[in-house]
# Entry
Amino acid sequence: MSNSTHKHNGLLRTYAIALQEIIQHNEVIYTILDKPPPEPPKTPRYQSQLEKQLKEMKIPKQRRTFGYAETPLNPPDNFLKKGEGIGQPIKTSDHKCFVSGNLPPVPKRSAMPKKQEKPKVNFRVLNIKKAIKTKPKPLEPRLVDTRDGHIKKIKGSGEVPEYCLRKDFGQMPAYLVKRNRKIQRDLDRIKYAEEHKESLCKLINEQERQALLKDLKYNWQLMQKAFLQLPMLTDTIPKILKKTKMEQELRQLEKDIALVESNPYIYVYD
# Structure
């Protein structure tokens, strides 16, 4: 065979193997995807070194149970008798009384005072006296308005004048009298306050006037000194506003000084 024939047979064999792998395979598309990385191994659990020594020593443990499965009962002749039950604990005291022969004798019991005898009362006589002194219930005036003997009270029926015979008929009620008195007191208080009201206008004396003038001049000097210390170049808005404000305050102080100097009598209103 020539070399070409060997190459051709090799290619056929390779093609058959590849075709067999494509048709007969156990591959799934979901297994081709990237699997998540495996979890890191866990650190070994802590184990005490003394545990093995204690197991080797074999210390006996105190075993405990939940009690009897069935509670054993007492025999019938061993029933609960008087004084054997669970009662209140008897209080014990550590106090000891030391008796000596020097104690005074126990005083004798004094005679009980006699009870005061209640005075005898004759209730029959008392009832007779009360019955004699009691006043009979006043008869209420009534009116029979039918032949069958129908009775009705005259009071509140309108047959007899009642309201016009009252003592306070035609008089002002008490609550109105009280209210008028309160209003009159308030009016009197207001009138008194207006009559004795102090004048709001006050004349200041010469000393106060000179002190006021001195303070105004001192404030003007401080303001003038601050104004002269301003920069010559006012190239920003804050500088312009500050300079304008100080000029207005200086003009107002000059007006106030001129007003106080020109007027010897100055009145102040509170």
In short: The radius of gyration is 63 Å. The chain has seven helices and four strands. Helices lie at 3-23, 29-32, 50-57, 123-133, 174-195, 206-228, 237-262. The mean pLDDT is 82.
